[in-house]
Design goal:
This protein is α+β, with helices and mostly antiparallel strands. The protein contains 13 helices and 14 strands. Strands 1, 3, 4, 5, 6, 7, 8, 9, 10, 11, 13 and 14 form a 12-stranded mixed β-sheet that branches. A two-stranded antiparallel sheet has the order 2-12. The radius of gyration is 34 Å and the shape is elongated. About 35% of the residues are buried.
Length: about 425
């Protein structure tokens, strides 16, 4: 029930010393404000990092070859070697945990070397030979046309899917792209699609926006690569570990290509599943640290509220004695003190909560409007669950802040309180 007299007493009590009340409330305000800002900033950093990964399969691994460092079966150390097309069939046959398998060829010489010609324009781009499965592991957005398909592989078609920056640099604005021919290292390819990457933080083989995909089989034939394979990208089936797939794959590939079992340097590999778990662990640690620091800051404000309530009770000792002498129950005294504490905490904390969320929204709008919403910081949001959690922490803090002063108030004997000077 709403007790008007009680709320008038609370208002008069807090108003009697405005400066003291202000600084006490500011401690709670600052605690909640900093908690919201730090949580939002942590989310902004996480969103940027995870968003930069796009839809890259997080249960994937990438393997490639390096020089051997151990002589084995008559082969010397320092040997350069490649995977082979037959290895792909062996992997699919012997490792049931594999879901998607995409071999890749890299046409070397694209760095700082003009390897693409269109009319009078030349450019240096990353050229890769791929299977359609690559678009399930490291997907792209098709802006025009289509991606490489199985018919392209079977017929060894000379077709190309180009990145958006390749289009912008090699073609005039508004100029038709599909159906045009690019000369790539002396061989003409018809453009059948234009793409933009879904992620920009995961780069293998060069800037994705400046990349060109051609069919894997076409590259093998056009550039006399035989049955060589430079990379294998694999994903694990649901509920299977990419680490297990990676380990089994490298063991099988080592056996098939006469690599010493203990020659760890002969393989280059990257396990995105492990990196993803590391990042999740890192951001979990950051989140826990934020809650510890934010709660500590809030606790300082709570202690301030508790102190001011102790001072208020000391100043109102005779008043409390009169109330007890007139028959006020201990619960009434306790509820009044706790209500004052919770009121001060909720009012100050609500301002901090609202201002923190408002500031994060303003920062997000500025980032979006300025084009800075990207690689390092993105969408510094605080979801509704966090706001509710902060509000619950706020209410509990107010109760704790008023508990000690309330026990002190109710512990006074009416006679002693009336005699207090």
């Amino acid at each position: 029930m709403f007790d008007r007299d009680k709320w008038q007493e609370i208002y008069s009590s807090l108003k009697s010393n405005k400066l003291r009340t202000f600084f006490t409330a500011f401690g709670v305000f600052w605690g909640i404000f900093m908690l919201i800002i730090m949580l939002g900033s942590g989310n902004g950093l996480r969103n940027a990092v995870m968003g930069g990964m796009g839809d890259f399969a997080t249960n994937s691994a990438i393997m490639f070859t390096r020089q051997t460092t151990i002589p084995y079966k008559g082969f010397p150390r320092g040997r350069f070697w490649n995977f082979h097309s037959s290895d792909m069939e062996a992997l699919l046959k012997n490792i049931p945990e594999i879901d998607q398998l995409a071999p890749r060829l890299q046409l070397w010489g694209g760095d700082n070397t003009n390897n693409v010609v269109y009319g009078l324009k030349t450019g240096a781009y990353s050229i890769t030979g791929d299977y359609p499965a690559i678009n399930k592991i490291d997907p792209v957005n098709i802006l025009e046309g289509r991606f490489i398909n199985e018919i392209d592989l079977q017929n060894k078609r000379k077709v190309a899917v180009i990145g958006n920056r390749v289009r912008d640099e090699m073609f005039k604005p508004g100029e038709p792209v599909l159906g045009e021919y690019l000369r790539i290292n002396g061989v003409y390819y018809q453009v059948v699609g234009v793409f933009e990457p879904k992620n920009r933080n995961m780069n293998f083989g060069g800037d994705k926006e400046k990349s060109i995909f051609i069919p894997f089989t076409t590259m093998q034939v056009s550039y006399n690569m035989g049955d060589a394979v430079h990379y294998f990208l694999v994903t694990a089936k649901p509920n299977k570990s990419a680490s297990v797939v990676e380990e089994k794959s490298m063991k099988l590939l080592a056996e098939r290509n006469h690599i010493a079992p203990d020659d760890e340097q002969a393989f280059g590999h990257f396990n995105l599943e492990k990196e993803f778990k590391k990042m999740n662990g890192l951001f979990l640690g950051i989140r826990i640290l934020i809650w510890i620091v934010g709660t500590g800051t809030l606790l300082a404000g709570v202690i301030g509220v508790s102190n001011i309530m102790l001072i208020i009770i000391k100043e109102r000792t005779r008043e409390i004695g009169v109330q007890r002498a007139l028959g006020a129950t201990p619960w009434r005294i306790v509820s009044q003190v706790i209500t004052e504490s919770v009121t001060l905490t909720i009012i100050a904390g609500s301002f901090g909560l609202v201002l923190g969320v408002f500031l994060l929204e303003m920062i997000n709008k500025v980032l979006v409007s300025s084009g800075g919403d990207g690689e390092m910081f993105k969408n510094p949001e605080v979801d509704i669950q966090v706001a509710v959690t902060a509000l619950i922490v706020l209410i509990i803090s107010g109760l704790i802040a008023g508990l000690i002063p309330a026990r002190k108030a109710v512990g006074m004997k009416p006679v002693d309180a009336l005699r207090y000077e």
